[in-house]
Amino acid sequence: MPHSVIEKPMAGSTAAYDVEALRGDFPILNREVHGKPLVYLDNAATSQTPQQVIEVFSDYYSRYNANIHRGLHTLADEATAAFETTRHRVKAFLNAEDARQIIFTRGTTEAINLVAQSWGRSSLGAGDEVLISMLEHHSNIVPWQLLAAERGVTIKVIPVDARGSLDMQAYRELLNERTKLVAVNHVSNALGTINPVKEMAALAHQHGALILVDGAQATPHQQVDVQEIDADFYAFSGHKVYGPTGVGVLYGKQALLEAMPPWQGGGEMISTVSFDVGTTFADIPHKFEAGTPAIAEVVALGRALEWMEGVGVDAISAWETVLLDHATQAVNQIDGLRILGTAPHKAGVLSFVVEGAHAQDIGLLIDQLGVAIRTGHHCAQPLLHHFGVEATCRASFAAYNTLDEVDIFVAALNRVIGMVR
């Protein structure tokens, strides 16, 4: 029996969540793969893009393609207005105090590197400590390792328990007067664990440390309020929130951003340039946006956030919880399958291994049945090694997935496991 429409209201919504109507916004969901209807469950890597966002690119390049901020002609004014409108939309999306706290980057990875190279190189030295967690994506590990090698900084790791939750007692014990930064993800991309970042921020601030939150996996699944969290830095990527690749956001507290030196030099980030007396820099946010940005992508990001808000972030979150619960119950019936990450608070990520079957074989064969999942280490090698595995299969859910698709995935998974064992 199809379950394409939830017949009860979703949290945060006063109407039924009609996923079939919502799917009409996504043209890619109509395609077939290997003669089978596409079931796309690789959303933690990249979500699909609604038609309203796709149309931004045609509109921009056919109507007002121009460089921004310094032009005096009509097209430049229109492009600048569209670009800066997105900055204000992101401000509202994160509940930032001021649009100047919103820096556009190429994604979460570049945002974290910006903090490491600007704030980190100017603020950290030998003996200082940076705390990261076992749950981190490589993009929130490697920049700090590079900085540690250069500046003599010590990196300490917050452990996780058997369910994939952070060991908060260990975190409290790791914090001390040498701790200068806590860098932690809001939601684990590999396990789906939702971390208590508000509590972690309060504890870090009690010890005089800052906190950077990698929000790449949180922003697609839940409301984020950087003021409530009291995050010093918060980063996310456009392609996780139904937007384009190549664009992301760094939020930072205003005083921190104003004190930080530029990371990249070039046009737009300057106030004056002189061979005689040197260069002075623009105010934030432009100090950190050197060169011509990804203008169309930024405008499209604004449209993607508008789409999410139109559906309702709380409604999306509630629907994904239904999908996750349904999938978890179903795969738990499969002999030899072990779920990695059973934290009590999870987003829409289901990561698992199957006894006697290699993750890559499962991923390749299930694709032949039209089902797209992710296999591998998910850029979280230390975490997977901690659990004693080299790779997992990961199904991850988004606003447009259906319960029928979950059933198709589980049936395909059972068929594939029977082939590879």
UniProtKB/TrEMBL annotation:
InterPro entries: Aminotrans_V_dom (IPR000192), Cys_dSase_SufS (IPR010970), PyrdxlP-dep_Trfase (IPR015424), PyrdxlP-dep_Trfase_major (IPR015421), PyrdxlP-dep_Trfase_small (IPR015422). Belongs to the class-V pyridoxal-phosphate-dependent aminotransferase family. Csd subfamily. Keywords: Pyridoxal phosphate, Transferase. The keyword Transferase applies. It catalyses: (sulfur carrier)-H + L-cysteine = (sulfur carrier)-SH + L-alanine. It is an enzyme of class 2 (transferase). Residues 39-409 form the Aminotransferase class V domain. It comes from Vreelandella piezotolerans. It comes from the Bacteria. This is cysteine desulfurase.
